[in-house]
Amino acid sequence: MQEFRKLEQRLAYQFRDEALLVEALTHRSAQSRNNERLEFLGDSALNFVIADELFRRCPQESEGNLSRLRASLVNRASLAEIARELQLGDYVRLGSGEIKSGGHRRESILADTLEAVIGAVYLDDGFDACRALIRELYRQRLEQLPAISELKDAKTRLQEYLQGQRQPLPAYRVLDVSGKAHDQQFTVECVVQEAGMKTEGQAGSRRQAEQQAAEAMLQLLGKLS
Amino acid sequence: MQEFRKLEQRLAYQFRDEALLVEALTHRSAQSRNNERLEFLGDSALNFVIADELFRRCPQESEGNLSRLRASLVNRASLAEIARELQLGDYVRLGSGEIKSGGHRRESILADTLEAVIGAVYLDDGFDACRALIRELYRQRLEQLPAISELKDAKTRLQEYLQGQRQPLPAYRVLDVSGKAHDQQFTVECVVQEAGMKTEGQAGSRRQAEQQAAEAMLQLLGKLS
């Protein structure tokens, strides 16, 4: 359809079945047949294709570093950035409430819609087409991977998230140290006062335990947002 | 190789490059070139292929139910069960400490090794072979999907996990109720005394907040185990 020609040009992909593209662009606020199922499919395709790319491009990296690299590529902010490059917001179909509140610019809606488009391409033309799309969308980011040392750890990400929400910084407190000198276990609490939330982490070093607690807090906040 | 003939028969897959299979079977306790990178790759391939299967088999299910169905299929216990059906434990290469402590029967090692084998098949012969393997491994489970109503919620899974570890049951406590009568927010704490761990959940109902707290606890326990 004429309506989608520019978007398809930017995606470098032309749909056989444009109903799939329409479904991918339809937010749940607009109608019951929406893009949530396609998002589920696209999200897992994206995670797999990026895992494969990183596996091949970084033959020396540990599994942990591959995971962190992937998280830096497929998080909501990166997806929304790519969606904005595609001007995807212009095509998203929203309910009237979401339109009024600026939903077509909202990061979560942009990110989810891009995942749904990826899922739609997979259904429309199979795995090779879907992989080619993801590689193209991520080409620059895959060629300029961040150095491992630059990847943000959980404490940094939590701090930045809270600053973005204009909330005070989290507090960390050692609750318990147990075990013998050469095999200690630290239990650390992370408190976000504003949200009234606490998480804990346990590890062989205080620093690691703090990271665990921060990671648990990020997951908790992610679930609530 | 003769050594792997029976395993390959059970997998219904013959490796071109048997070095990949050896790597997939090598636990990190045995040597530095181990199966952790392959596990990263296999895990994401598995998640994608199962997502795709469920998407097609359950055209009426919501994204949330598809997620829950997938979690019931790709969790550690299910993977370990399939690994035992393949007698994968007989082939796992462990360090001497792990051998002594019965590592070839440990659920986490069996599950991780199976994911690594899936990753190895993907590298050995591409996506179609990998998908065929996963479909075959999961054939019965995909044909006899649990009813959505039978899927275990987070509180139930946490309880079963702790019972399996012979630990006392978790305790839930309402920390805070805020907001007006028609729009209350419950904050609930989940405490696992034995592990000295606390998580919190927040939601519009006490039951939902307990589920959130239990889910956060499961993630925390998963990270530490």
Compact overview of the structure:
Two copies of one chain form a homodimer. Chain A is mostly helical. Chain A contains ten helices and three strands, in the order αααααααααβββα.
CA radius of gyration of chain A:
20 Å
Query: Topology as H/E string of chain A?
Result: HHHHHHHHHEEEH
CATH architecture of the largest domain in chain A: Orthogonal Bundle
CATH topology of the largest domain in chain A: Ribonuclease iii, N-terminal Endonuclease Domain, Chain A
The level-1 CATH class of the largest domain in chain A: Mainly Alpha
Low-confidence stretches of chain A are none
CATH superfamily of the largest domain in chain A: Ribonuclease III domain
Total helix count of chain A? 10
Helix content of chain A: 55-70%
The total of beta strands of chain A comes to 3
Strand content of chain A: 5-15%
Shape call of chain A: globular
Output the keywords.
three-stranded antiparallel beta sheet; 225 residues; homodimer; Double Stranded RNA Binding Domain; 3 strands; mainly alpha; Ribonuclease iii, N-terminal Endonuclease Domain, Chain A; 10 helices; 2 domains
